Amino acid sequence: MSISIGSSKIALSEIIRAMQQGDTSSKVYRIISFVRIPRTLAAVLAGCALSVSGAILQSVLNNSLASPSIIGVNSGAGLFSVLIAAFFPASIYYTTIAAFIGAFVAVLLVYFIAKATGASRMAIVLSGVAVSSFIGAMTDTVLTLKPDAVMERTAFLIGGFSGVTMNRLSFAAVFIVIAFFIALILSYDMNILALGDESAKSLGLNVTKLRFIFLILVAMLAGSAISFAGLLGFVGLIIPHVSRILVGYDNRILIPVSALLGSIFTLLCDLLARVVFAPFEIPVGIIMSFLGGPFFIYLLIKGRRGQLYD
């Protein structure tokens, strides 16, 4: 559906015929190869990365409100991406690395601020809101001083997949795939960590080291996705909770299911963004905000002071 439907609808038979012929002079082939397929892959990868990073954060921090967009990870990645685009435009392909560094710096800031204030679950969320606000102000300052930055301001801040190319996507995809498989390998340790620090230590787990590794994985996943998709919100908040309703709390199952549902959800949001006001297109981040905002309020009302596990 994602490859077929858009500003111009292409029948499945036309898609198959165009790809078999491989005629670069064909309009249908160019649309599929250079627009639709990169965009579809971008939505799949971004949805996978953000939902898995949200699942990791919620499990590791034992906080149902934790997600890359809520606790400042997205903002940190966005700031460093904008800095690269504004001051080093010739190095735009290093955006993925810059986004990873920014996400990692943000998550460390939130973690240490929360730890200094008692490390309560609500302290983590409030620290994230404060860090996001501060980093957001820095991003706005850079964009105001450098309005000719390579990235288009509005589309990047809202988030979307318009204009994504395979060259830009391939580098970030390597980071996402590596981080995803490491998360799968460590998913059993994540289950032990969810028992609580004291229980995990008594079972021989190096809690500090493991939590640090998971924060690095979150930064890799979220930073890589933001480098090509912009500041998409709420995927990492909604999807892990939906996945837990379907398959429970075992991270060995939760991680792959979150990846699958996150990809599907992001693809559907992107499809809606293309067809709801066709021939006009709205950024996919707007669709996600409409869905994610009420869900976040629901979690605040329902949640046991943000606690994920009993």
Textual characterization of the structure:
The protein has 310 residues and is mostly helical. It has a single domain (49-302), classed as ABC transporter involved in vitamin B12 uptake, BtuC (Orthogonal Bundle). The chain is 73% helix and 0% strand. It contains 13 helices and no strands. The longest helix has 35 residues, at 27-61. The radius of gyration is 20 Å and the shape is globular.
Q: Average the pLDDT over all residues and give the rounded result.
A: 83
| CATH topology category name | ABC transporter involved in vitamin B12 uptake, BtuC
Estimate percent helicity.
over 70%
Query: How many E strands?
Result: 0
Write down the Rg. 20 Å
Q: What overall form do the CA principal axes indicate?
A: globular
**What is the N-to-C succession of helices and strands?**
HHHHHHHHHHHHH
Tell me the CATH architecture: Orthogonal Bundle
Name of the CATH class: Mainly Alpha
List the helices and strands and how they pair.
Elements: H1 12-21, H2 27-61, H3 73-87, H4 95-116, H5 121-145, H6 153-158, H7 166-185, H8 187-193, H9 197-202, H10 207-229, H11 235-247, H12 251-275, H13 284-302
Helix pairs in contact: 1-2, 2-7, 2-10, 2-11, 2-12, 3-4, 3-5, 3-10, 4-5, 4-10, 7-10, 7-12, 11-12, 12-13
